[in-house]
Amino acid sequence: MRYPRFLQENGTIAFVAPSFGCASEPYKAGFLRAQEKWRQEGYGLKLGPNCYVEQGVGISNKPRLCGEELTQYYCDGASDCMISCGGGELMCEILDYVDFDRIKEAPPKWYMGYSDNTNMTFLLATLCDTASVYGPCAAAFGMEPRHQALEDAMALLQGKKLTMDGYEMWERESLKSEENPYAPYHLTEVSRVKYFLPDGRTNVESLQGAGGRMPAGTDNRNCQSEAGVHIQVSGRLLGGCVDCLVNLLGTKYDKVTAFTEKYKEDGILWFLEACDLNLMGIRRAMWQMEHAGWFQNCSGFLIGRPLNGMGEEAFGIDHYQAVCEMLYQYQVPVLMDLDIGHLPPMMPLICGSMAEVTSDGEKYSVEMKLE
Questions:
Q1: Are 132 and 102 in contact (CB under 8 A)?
Q2: Cα 40 to Cα 17: distance, rounded to the nearest angstrom
Q3: Residue 213 has what pLDDT?
Q4: Residue 83 DSSP SS3
Q5: Would the pLDDT of 211 be above 90?
Q6: Element spanning 81, H or E
Q7: Cβ neighbours of residue 58 under 8 Å, at least 6 residues apart?
Q8: DSSP string computed for 90-102
């Protein structure tokens, strides 16, 4: 695995828009404010030609122009790291215009983004054997004040912080708007890890009694009131937004089984979160990834809060059952409702790195190592 050099003091940050740019509010105002802050902190900034463009379908510009921008800014030596302007809908369409062979030969550079940016963060790892950061996009850094998650993302890019702790609260409904573009996260919900362990222990009511669907010999104990549970799992981090991942599955960009075979001695620690998919869509996606062999050599699963379906039910299942019932057979720890993805704050994760996750059943920590 190739690891880029960390962002140095007075280094240069490049911004690209391979998905949506920052052409409309509240993203434009947030991006401009973020730039002010970065300049005050001493960084040089380099903006790609599509950052303020709104001429594409589901992305900033025509796919060819977005792909060329991404390749050029990754491979040039004029910046030290890259942050995507935003997520979007059709970043997959730029992939035919991204020169992954050239990127693989270029000196590695940190690329950070999430959601639709899975098309880059995931493929950097699986196609180019290069680590990336699944973390916040540029406009979020304009909030006042910055949440600790954004400070953590910058500290990670600087190499100052590689161990992340789960945050205490999360946002169900955002207060950000065109009139209030710098609004901080509206933190109303208490964070608590949910889990399902290989021996059947769980603190999720809907998963209690799941032992009948697990391999014979599992204990299937209800751990809801058990004190002092200790969960520890390690492996090589791989994942992103499920909506994007299943779109890549089976295409010429799908080199996942080769990647998981290469790193099978490490074990693959999957991190997954969903955006537009409803509960049935999430369950279908898990079925598809499982049947494609993606989960072979897995050591565990870190599941973020789904944007669509959090706390809801459909056809008798909730979002825990939507993911877990495909994963029982692997007999590995599954941690859910984590700070990954679309319901902020989001913990920045290095896709491709080795990680050790520990939890007491309520809080959790992720220690990443560049190995």
A1: no
A2: 23
A3: 54
A4: strand
A5: no
A6: strand 81-84
A7: 19, 20, 88, 89, 90, 91, 93
A8: -GGGGGGGS-HHH
